[in-house]
Design goal:
InterPro entries: AB_hydrolase_fold, Lipase_secreted
Number of helices: 12
Helix content: 25-40%
Number of strands: 13
Oligomer: single chain
Region (Disordered): 49-70
Distance between the termini: 34 Å
Structural class: alpha/beta
CATH class of the largest domain: Alpha Beta
GO biological process, one term: lipid catabolic process
Shape: globular
Order of helices and strands: HEEEEEEEHEHEHEHHHHHHEHEHE
Strand order of the largest sheet: 4-5-6-8-7-9-10-11-12-13
Pfam family, one: LIP
GO molecular function, one term: triacylglycerol lipase activity
Largest sheet: 10 strands, mixed
């Protein structure tokens, strides 16, 4: 991170805002496995992303296939993976992602794991970050050099058929945890069962929900800590803030994604979108986030939205169910929240309220607020301190951690 170019690559890798050309047409091609066919979410995707139909029998985390991924300059090896997971209805699905293994010999007990939960890329099949593995190099090298095996899920529906359930916490969490299970099964990975979740933006939301379900969803693994950068919470507040922001297309993304996850009975699009708004959703299957933002820039969203989702009981309930601010029990490991004071996407007050809400229910946590930093800009100045904080958690050091990053205001709960 010593040059402007490397910093730019780092931020692109972390936030996952790469614009990718997409298509929603399904393509089936015959395989040489009898009656099994390969189903692609887009005909433009590489053959690797063809999902076997039917899926192989197995458990969440079982490897369906893998292939080497080209990542020049990586201080380790990287592979693209497809693995079994489950959706929020408990049905088996295929999810794609990456596994990055450090050079050298694993310590006793295996490489400790960091599972990376990426930021917003879109909800179409071709918006999967694993399509551009080289963009992970700068971010990943600091973790690999520190002795961590890194796994990075694409989440359900990115790289694989169907719309991605954007901001559906349980879906994000399962993909993020099941790729840790995958590492246990990956040849020569020498993976530990101990792991930390780190995510930013949408990934911060995923990290919160992964921490929330980890103990019951994957009791055979050991979650050590949880790091959530700019996590969306207080979703009713965020929804209101987005109405007139340059990121108003996120509202349409959430609507389309929740309908894909919950169906018309719980998430009826005709309740919240006009015919013009429903027509705009077609872009979700052909564009990724940056292009969606451009497409929405000149639109009057008051003409697309029939009603504020917060005013429709079923939609209001879904927003609450997917809001980490509604947790009634603490995440059972130390939590670190990181936020930029000038975040233009996620209101700073939302993480302040979240911190207080969680503290009241007994969460062991810290919050680092970096004055003057934007949504993406907070990542670079917090990175090295965050890696040290993670190391302290793996080492079993007590909280609150004495680390005080330059430029950050630190809150701790409990304070001593």
């Amino acid at each position: 991170m010593t040059t402007k170019r490397s910093l730019a690559v780092f931020l692109i890798a972390v936030l996952g805002f790469a614009a990718l050309g997409c298509s929603s047409d399904n393509q089936k091609s015959s395989s040489n496995q009898g009656k099994v066919t390969m189903v692609k979410g887009s005909p433009d995707l590489p053959d690797f992303y063809g999902v076997p139909d039917p899926l192989p029998t197995g458990k969440p985390g079982d490897v369906i296939r893998s292939e080497p991924a080209d990542a020049p300059g990586l201080n380790g090896s990287m592979s693209r993976v497809m693995y079994l997971s489950t959706n929020i209805n408990g049905e088996a699905i295929a999810v794609t992602g990456l596994i990055l293994i450090p050079n050298g010999t694993a310590p006793s007990g295996g490489w400790p794991i960091i599972t990376w939960a990426h930021g917003t890329t879109g909800i179409a099949d071709a918006c999967a970050p694993s399509l551009k593995p080289a963009e992970f190099v700068t971010m990943a090298n600091g973790l690999l050099d520190a002795g961590y095996l890194v796994v990075a899920t694409d989440y359900e529906g990115l790289g694989t058929p169907g719309r991605h359930p954007y901001i559906v916490g349980e879906s994000e969490a399962r993909g993020t945890i099941d790729i840790v299970r995958m590492a246990q099964n990956f040849p020569k990975a020498n993976a530990s069962k101990r792991y930390v979740v780190w995510g930013h933006s949408q990934g911060g939301h995923a990290a919160m929900f992964a921490g929330h379900i980890a103990k019951t969803y994957a009791p055979e693994l050991e979650l050590v800590a949880d790091v959530a950068g700019a996590p969306p919470s207080q979703l009713l507040l965020v929804n209101a803030a987005l109405q007139t922001s340059p990121y108003k297309h996120y509202i349409a993304m959430v609507a389309a994604a929740m309908n894909a996850a919950y169906g018309d009975q719980k998430a009826d699009l005709t309740q919240v979108l006009t015919p013009e708004g429903l027509d705009f959703l077609k872009n979700m299957d052909t564009m990724c986030s940056s292009d969606l933002g451009k497409a929405a820039a000149g639109l009057d969203f008051t003409k697309l939205q029939k009603a504020d989702p917060a005013t429709i009981p079923s939609w209001n309930q879904l927003l609450k169910e997917n809001d980490p601010g509604t947790f009634t029990a603490p995440i059972p490991v130390p939590l670190l929240i990181i936020h930029g004071g000038n975040d233009e996407q996620i209101p700073v007050v939302s993480s302040a309220v979240l911190f207080d809400q969680l503290c009241k229910i007994g969460q062991v946590e810290q919050r680092w607020l970096f004055a003057g930093q934007s949504h993406a800009g907070v990542i670079a100045p917090s990175y090295s301190s965050m890696v040290s904080w993670i190391g302290d958690r793996f080492a079993g050091k007590p909280m609150p951690d004495p680390i005080a990053p330059a430029g950050a205001v630190v809150q701790s709960c409990p304070s001593k």
